[in-house]
Amino acid sequence: MATERPDTLIADEVVHTLGQHSQSSQVLVQVKDGEVTLSGDVPDAAAKRAVETLIAGIEGVRNVRSHLHVDSGNSSFGSRGEAVRDNPDGRDDAQMGDIDLDKDG
User: Fold this and answer.
1) % of the chain exceeding 70 in pLDDT
2) Phi, psi angle pair for 41, to nearest 5°
3) Which of 8, 51, 71, 81 is the most exposed place for a label (fewest CB within 10 A)?
């Protein structure tokens, strides 16, 4: 009887695999009992199929539930498949001290 691969190891490999696939930066992952649930945005149907196939081939994955959404860029403000930042100039205001979290004092 083969030993099941722990969900944490599956999740680590899924995240690493997605990191190597440039069109899947907006994909979120959940793993439970070897079943991987994917959600988020990809730029086109080919990227969606590629991500689903890559993940299905990972050792220990029993099933892939895909809730991936193809976002061609028409329904968002960003480029195809890229995250939209709320700070387009790339500044990290929290680190720069520009945000006052204590508004009462």
Assistant:
1) 66
2) -115, 145
3) 8
Q: What is the DSSP letter of 3?
A: P
* Dihedral sign for Cα atoms in the order 77, 30, 38, 17: positive
Q: Which CATH number fits domain 1-72: 3.40.50.2000, 3.30.565.10, 3.30.1340.30, 3.40.50.970?
A: 3.30.1340.30
Gap between the Cα atoms of 88 and 57, Å rounded: 36
What pLDDT, on a 0 to 100 scale, did the predictor assign at position 80?
57
Dist. CA 38–CA 61, nearest whole Å: 12
Domain range annotation of the chain: 1-72
Would the pLDDT of 91 be above 70?
no
**Which pLDDT score, from 0 to 100, does residue 82 have?**
58
Residue 20's identity, in one-letter code, is Q
